[in-house]
């Protein structure tokens, strides 16, 4: 947790490809992070796990490469694409943070389900605060897709700030 004498804090911000994520990071910089504070801002991107399709007959025969229907070329292409997305998200987040003074900005890309890896990383790093955007899914979508922010709020030991994006906000316009 935060060093009470120096005021140094570890602020973990979960970032992804969404406008909600961008808004949450910008809101955090405007309202939480202080210039010349010696805070550490940790930008975390959770690279989603690869979707795995098993052989349609369920046998996992060797001719299906250990039971999977993708060739090594397709798997390599999928891995390359997810790495490019991760790099792009992290670069965009770092650009948003470029004008900070005396605030250390670190980046992390972790592989796995966002709900789990965000919670695990917050715990492992001893984060003082987790900032996460809310996609604002309704009841039905949340039931099917799950809510990363809700899961983190229920399972992370540090304070969690869920930033809701105003309806009129857009990074594209």
Mind explaining what this structure looks like?
With 173 residues, the chain is of the alpha/beta class. 38% of the residues lie in helices and 19% in strands. The chain has 5 helices and 5 strands. The chain has helices spanning 19-31, 72-96, 114-125, 139-145, 148-155, and strands spanning 10-15, 40-47, 104-111, 129-134, 160-164. The chain has a 5-stranded parallel β-sheet with strand order 3-2-1-4-5, with helices on both faces. α1 (19-31) links the parallel β1 (10-15) and β2. The longest helix has 25 residues, at 72-96. The mean pLDDT is 82.
Subunit arrangement of the protein: single chain
**Proportion of helical residues:** 25-40%
Regions with pLDDT < 50 over 5+ consecutive residues? none
* Rg: 19 Å
How are the strands ordered across the major sheet? 3-2-1-4-5
Number of helices: 5
Indicate the structural class. Answer: alpha/beta
* Beta-strand segment tally: 5
Instruction: Spell out the helices and strands N to C.
Output: EHEHEHEHHE
- Global shape: globular
End-to-end CA span: 39 Å
Topology of this protein?
Layout: E1 10-15, H1 19-31, E2 40-47, H2 72-96, E3 104-111, H3 114-125, E4 129-134, H4 139-145, H5 148-155, E5 160-164
Parallel strand pairs: 1-2, 1-4, 2-3, 4-5
Helix pairs in contact: 3-5
Task: Write out key terms for the chains shown.
single chain; 173 residues; alpha/beta; five-stranded parallel sheet; 5 helices; 5 strands; globular
């Amino acid at each position: 947790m935060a060093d009470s004498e120096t005021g140094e804090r570890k602020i973990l911000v979960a970032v992804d490809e969404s406008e909600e994520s961008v808004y949450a990071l910008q809101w955090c910089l405007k309202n939480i992070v202080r210039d010349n504070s010696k805070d550490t801002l940790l930008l975390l991107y959770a690279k989603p796990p690869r979707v795995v399709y098993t052989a349609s007959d369920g046998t996992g025969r060797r001719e299906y490469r250990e039971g999977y229907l993708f060739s090594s070329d397709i798997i390599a292409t999928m891995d390359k694409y997810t790495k490019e997305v991760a790099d792009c998200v992290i670069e965009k987040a770092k650009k948003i943070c470029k004008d900070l003074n005396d605030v250390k900005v670190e980046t992390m890309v972790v592989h796995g389900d966002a709900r789990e890896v965000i919670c695990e990383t917050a715990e492992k790093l001893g984060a003082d605060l987790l900032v996460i955007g809310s996609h604002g899914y309704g009841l039905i979508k949340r039931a099917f897709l799950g809510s990363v922010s809700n899961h983190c709020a229920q399972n992370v030991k540090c304070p969690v700030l869920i930033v809701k994006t105003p309806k009129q906000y857009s990074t594209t316009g």
